[in-house]
Amino acid sequence: MFMLGRFGKTILNCLFPIYCVECRREGTWWCRACRGTQKQSAHFFETPSPLNGLLAIWSYHSESPVGELIQQFKYNHSSAISELWAEILPAELPVAVASASVVPVPLYSRRERERGYNQAKIIGRFLAGKLQLPFIPDTLKRVRATRQQARLSRLEREENVRGAFISRPAPSEDVILVDDVFTTGATMGECAAALKANGARRVFGFVLAKGE
Ligand SMILES: [Zn+2]
């Protein structure tokens, strides 16, 4: 990804104007006034094993501003929204993970090629940068295509992703596993199990938003 200068951005904004998801003000995905001036921070949630807990910034509702942004980020080829995440992601976590590595949930290779990017990888790279932790994107691999989880029940989700991930040796004992959204935890649970079978001791999930 190359960086655009101010001039390039101005031209892009003229061609493809962006609007605040809440107040429709032009030139921003989500303006400062709407998202509040408070620093965003991640909150800790208990989860069933093998995850050791979940860190999430927001709650997820598809009609909320954040939900809408995440949908666009995921499905509308809006990788430019990543600029917003870079600005918003916290530089501290509510758990002690000084020597952790950051690992994204992988997409199946064909899906990543079609979409052009993996949203979890983009979020993970920014998060690792903010926390000054190593980012190890190729630790996990999705070894088969899975159905989109959105319309599946909890049990169907668990079956859909069972055995879908393999892991290289975990890069550190503590791992921060990154995705965009956490719903039933089926995907993150499978990834955490694969990491723990390969040397990880604790695996914390990190997502932008947690479904309710
Ligand atoms: Zn606004």
Radius of gyration: 17 Å
**How many alpha or pi helices?**
8
- Name the helix and strand elements from N-terminus to C-terminus, one letter apiece: HHEEHHEHHEHEEHE
Question: What is the oligomeric state here?
Answer: single chain
Main sheet: which strands, in order across?
1-2-7-6-3
Which regions contain 5 or more consecutive residues with pLDDT less than 50? none
What share of residues are in beta strands? 15-25%
Q: What is the straight-line distance between the termini? A: 34 Å
Helix content: 25-40%
| Main structural class | alpha/beta
Hetero compounds: zinc ion
Q: Report the principal-axis shape.
A: globular
| CATH fold call of the largest domain | Rossmann fold
Mean pLDDT, as a whole number? 88
Plain-language structure description:
The chain is of the alpha/beta class and 212 residues long. The chain folds into 2 domains: 1-35, no CATH class; 39-211, Rossmann fold (3-Layer(aba) Sandwich). It contains 8 helices and 7 strands; from the N terminus they run H-H-E-E-H-H-E-H-H-E-H-E-E-H-E. It has a 5-stranded mixed beta sheet. A two-stranded antiparallel ribbon has the order 4-5. A hairpin with an 8-residue loop joins strand 1 (43-45) and strand 2. It is globular. The two termini are 34 Å apart. The structure holds zinc ion (ZN).
